[in-house]
Amino acid sequence: MTEFFASVTPDSLLAATAAFFGFLLVLFLGSRILPGTNLLGVRNADGSQISYRLNGFLLWLILVAVCALGTYKQLFSLGFLHTHFASLLVVVNIFAFTTTVLLYLKARGKKEELRSGPLGVIQDMFFGAELNPSLFGVDLKMFSYRPSLMGLGLLNVSFAVVQYQKYGFISQAMCIYQIFYFLYLCNYFQFEYGMVYTWDIIAEKFGWMLVWGDYVLVPFFYSLPGWYLVDRTEALPTWAIAGLAVLYTTGFILFRGSNEQKHQYKHNPKATIWGKPAETVGGKLLVSGFWGIGRKLNYTGELLMYSAWSLTTGFESVVPYILPLWLLCLFTHRAWRDEQRCAEKYGPLWKEYCARASFRMFPFLY
User: What is the value of pTM for the model shown?
Assistant: First the structure.
């Protein structure tokens, strides 16, 4: 740990601060300026609806093009992110904690309903005090997915750049890792409209839990496998490449397919799923497609994808597997919490649905 933070110097912190806030500013301005489809979110308890401008995919493509051109023309090197990783981690942590305090003060200024006492202040900072804080017309909770996932993408590419600079080539494992992540990120921003209806956007308030998760956890910890791939240069056997491709593809189909099916049904109850009209329990709970098999197969699919990323590193260290293990705990708890809410909301219909889709995430296990 001491060796990891040895690179943190006043100069590196200054460079990291400039890079991070410059990146954040560019994405924020892009979110404000670039054209995109306007989509109304779900109706809040007070009857209001937020209009989201969905231009993340265009912003992501522009970022990829600028980085590719800048690298090709040798205007800059994304290896900077690797060499300044520790300094960036420090800067972004300070940003996350500072933003948490500012969000709490903003909620107090708007006279949001807050908890009382010192413990209440801590809870409001941790879980958030305002559901949909915005800045200059940009919803901060929705926006934060952009620096989070785009930052993750750039950090991952920096590992490939460093490997090439160090060894003169990019290994098979690194290529697979980059392809998997690139497809995932492209698909995420292409499917950005689906994020408007996720639990985080609909129900979670914007506090430390989401701020730190978006700005620190996702880019810096989800990229852990990339660190181990920099020095893994040996060729992979054909069976390993095929196995990784099958695992990732299966996870991708479950993850994206189930989310897309739910989105289709919410916007068109007469939609066809797998060639048949959508079937429901009580006209409310979808039991067609993946949702008639398992109740949280979207979580299962995401776990399979993250397992594929970690497996590219081999088995020399347990550290790259912290990510899928962490997500296993997170998704298991989130699935349980979501089901408590659904049981309360739907009552007997939920029991009937559970009888149709008999498991949450893993057949015969959970």
Answer: 0.88
